[in-house]
Amino acid sequence: MKSDFTFIEGGVTAPAGFTANGILCHIKASRKTNDTALIFSEKPCNAAGVFTQNRVKAESVKLTKKNIANGRIQAVIANSGNANCCTGAQGAENALRMAKAAAAELGISADDVIVCSTGVIGQQLPVEKIEQNIGALKNGLSKEGHKEARIAIMTTDTQFKECAVETTIGGKTVKIGTMCKGSGMIHINLGTMLSFITTDCAISAEMLQKALYETVAGTYNCVSIDGDTSTNDTITILANGMAGNEEITADGEDYRKFLDALNRMNTVMAMKIAADGEGASRLIECSVTGAKDVQTARGLAKEVIRSNLVKAAMFGKDANWGRILCAMGYSGYEFTPEKTSVFFSSRKNAKRFFEAEGAESVQIAGTSASDEEIEVFCNGVPLDFDEEKAARILEEEAVEIAVKLQDGNAEGKAWGCDLTYDYVKINGDYRT
């Protein structure tokens, strides 16, 4: 099927009928930027969600799973600075108060509100600060409000993360928008960090859930920053049907076009998260080709980019391919070491990708040709390669580790970052 989508601006408010806003409620005393976000659809939405697999779940996750179970949602309220996790009955009540405050201002049911929180674990959320400012949050809802909302969900992120795409389904223009946050405590398993997706496509809640499971498998679930799966990981998608296409209720051409656009958008977001890992100085992409199946290709790639030894080597600009083979070897996935080759390549123009907001931002999303490439390991045998050239390649802000197998025709990718001194500094005093 030929892709026919384009990248557009607008984030979560790009689709018809959606507005957003973000303000500072002073949830964390030291914060100077927005810390509470609101997303609203003028019409009720079909909705679906995927959540953390951590046994310890935030109170906001528990409430959102309950509210979204019937497949109907109309608003999202999210805060940063406090995770509202391991907070007991009071934490549960605080999450519910967030939903009720938003619902009262918007004139909808509290059951139709998604609640998300991110930040420090184990401290009670000062929900009264949100309640006191909810009127201002609601009154500032607008199509331009995505710019305020995308900042409000950031914690240790150094850059906001948003994207939007446009495609044609059933003869109608359909838009999908998103924003997310994520920089540390990221080793995703059927969830993201916090990610909110909106669309004006008419699609059933059941097909939204199917699309979410399909898209996270090759995008968000292929990201690992530090090997820690958060207690608050949440990805939700809201569809208000205002594009006017015939509702997608089964797998077929329309569903596949929707999923294709969703996948491309989420691939960009996955790369943005990986590039903005806590303390990171470079994005690391591992691509595996020639695997026996897709699960193996993705699993091997993710094991490589999650290895602390590989990440440390990338920080030190050391082409230590032995660490890559070692990580693959203990991954539990089958491959033939004697038929394995390893390459390093660079992406010198990567910074444009992470800073751009519009269509230009996808030009180097893992698809452009390498600026430089070097083979270091061929068919199970080490090569006498140019160490200076390898170090020059690994010095760039985006580096690809290409692993070529001969076990089949499947391929997969994963994204991570290097491990720097700053990661320890950031997490050593995170609570303060």
Write out key terms for the chains shown.
alpha+beta, 6-stranded mixed sheet, 12 helices, 25% strand, globular
Descriptive notes:
- With 432 residues, this protein is an alpha+beta fold.
- The chain contains 12 helices and 15 strands.
- The strands form 2 sheets. Strands 1, 2, 3, 4, 5, 6, 7, 8 and 9 form a 9-stranded mixed beta sheet that branches.
- The termini are far apart.
- About 6% of the residues have low confidence.
Class per helix and strand makeup: alpha+beta
Q: How much of the polypeptide forms β-strand, as a percent range?
A: 25-35%
Span between N and C termini?
Answer: 51 Å
**Uncertain residue segments:** 184-192, 351-369
Radius of gyration: 21 Å
Order of helices and strands: EEEHEHEHHEEEHEHEHHHEHEEHEEH
Kindly report the average pLDDT value.
88
Question: How many helical elements?
Answer: 12
- Basic shape: globular
Helix amount: 25-40%
Largest sheet: 9 strands, mixed
Kindly report the oligomeric state of this protein: single chain
The number of strands is 15
